[in-house]
Every structure is written in structure tokens, then in C-alpha cells.
Amino acid sequence: MAVGIFDSGLGGLTVLDAIQRRLPDLPLVYYGDNAHAPYGVRTPDDIYRLTTAGVQVLFDRGCDLVVLACNTAAAAALRRMQEGWVPPGKRVLGVFVPLIEALTERQWGDNSPPREVAAKHVALFATPATVASRAFQRELAFRAIGVDVEAQACAGVVDAIEEGDLILAEALVRSHVEALLRKMPRPDAAVLGCTHYPLVASAFREALGPDVRLFGQADLVAQSLADYLARRPQFVGGGAGTVYLTSGNPRQVSDRAVQFLRRPISFDPA
User: Each residue of 168-203: pLDDT tens digit?
Assistant: First the structure.
């Protein structure tokens, strides 16, 4: 048994890398649904269908706990999955909650009523499907009041990153940041609501300026998972190492994965 990490493509490798650094002895199975990436332009029903199929692959591999390291999947499918699909004894977690806990300065498991927080104007950068779901705003409302969120759908960024064209990705980032700043000229904080975006975080930082606090996800999710497993050690499981699976072409996916992990890895067919 291992902990499963699911993503529509390769962005979840940024989360996996942080988890490996935080929990080096934790056995992991990573599954990227590269054959159907990107999810960010798909309908909610399509995202739900693909996400449940992908998580089932990990369940079948012996993973009792799966992390959706894909904001689009977490935004469009997670609640529906938890309400009526996840089998008894299994758990599926998303990447939004650790991010929002950090933004609202809450400790893990703090279920107190929503309250005012330091950040009053928050910029959210995410895929079109994540933005359309309003999942970030919904989760934020459970924890904070008086926060104005302006969301920017960053079309094309994930595609460019998956293709390895970081020059195009950074140009798109600058364009999307400019579009958001026309709507919210002075954000207090900016949320990178896609696990692909750490690869172009410097472009977001440069375009936003030094006064905007930038929130990513990888390290926050890794810490949250460590807290979760400390409270529920039955999900740690046995085994060792990491298995990498893909629905796409393993050779091509392995080659592209190097830009995310900065080391060679080998994907196997799912």
C-alpha cells in the first residue's frame, strides 16, 4: 500500500517532489492522465469522469489514500466524489484546503467560524475550469470574511508548460497578470491555483511586483499531508520508493517530466 498522487498531467510532480522532500520514506504511486490533459478546458462532468477513472487506477494499485494534485480535478470533482463515489476505507484529498488554511492563517483542522484575515484583496490565477467552479471562493468563505477575490483564467499556460515551451508560458503569464491588475490594481496576495505554475512562479512574481504575497501549493500540501498521516498512520502503508504511471506515451512523458523534477525518472503505462 502506498499514497497515491493523481494529476491530469505533469503539474502534480511539483507536489510529489515536495512530499518526497518532506516525507522521504513514504511510498508513493504517481499517476498522470497525460492522454487526456489538460483538464482545465473540459466540462465538469468530463473532469469528474476522468478523475474518478484515474483515482480508481490508484485504488487498484493498493492506494487507500489519494491526493488530487490537480486543482481542476479538486475544484470540479472532489466534493462530488467524496459525497457519493469514494468507497469505505478509502480517502481522497485535494490541494485547495492547505492553501486556504495558509492564506487565512489557520492551523490544520481549525473549524472555528469564519473571521477577518490580513489579506483583503486576493488574486487567483487558475485554469478556466477551476475559475468557473468557484471552489476556491466557496472554501475561502468557510474560513474568512471580508475577502475580495478576483479570479483570472489563465488559458494556454498549462498547455505551454506541458509542451516544454516556457518562453510562451511566461509570456502568457505576463498577459494574464496584466489582465487581472486591470480589474484589481492592488492585490494583497496572489494564489497560484495550479500545480503547473511553480515552473513559471518567477514570471508571476516579476509581473505582480514585490509587494504582493505569492502563495503556491507544493510545500503547503506536503506539510498538510504529513499532519494528516501523523493523525491517521493507517494510511502510511508499507513498501518503498515511488512508482510513476501514465495514460500517455511513457517515453515522451518521462522526457518531459525532467523539467518538473530536474532529475530523470521513468514512467510506466498505467
Answer: 999 999 999 999 999 999 999 999 999 999 999 999
Give me the mean pLDDT over the 116-122 stretch: 94
**CATH number of the domain enclosing 57:** 3.40.50.1860
pTM, two decimal places = 0.93
User: What is the arithmetic mean of pLDDT over 124-143?
Assistant: 94
214-263 pLDDT, tens per residue? Answer: 999 999 999 999 999 999 999 987 777 999 999 999 999 999 999 899 89
What span, in angstroms and rounded, lies between the C-alpha atoms of 143 and 73?
22
Which one of 140, 194, 220, 270 is the catalytic residue? 194
Q: Which long-range CB contacts under 8 A does 102-111 form with residues at least 24 apart?
A: 102/215, 102/220, 103/140, 103/144, 103/189, 103/191, 103/215, 104/140, 104/143, 104/144, 106/143, 108/224, 108/227, 108/228, 109/227
- Residues 193 and 263 placed together within one structural domain of the fold: no
Residue 116 has pLDDT above 90, yes or no: yes
Structural domain boundaries, residue 107: 98-215
Q: Is residue 36 located within the same domain as residue 90?
A: yes
User: Known catalytic residue: 63?
Assistant: no
Do 223 and 210 belong together in one domain?
no
* Nearest C-alpha neighbor of 13 from the set 199, 235, 270: 199
Q: What is the dihedral of CA 80, 40, 26, 66, to 10 degrees?
A: 20
Same domain, 237 and 162: no
Q: How far apart are the first and last CA of the chain?
A: 16
- 89 and 133 within one domain: no
Same domain, 76 and 144: no
Catalytic residue among 5, 66, 70, 78: 70
The verdict on whether 154 is a catalytic residue reads no
Q: Rounded mean pLDDT of 70-84?
A: 95
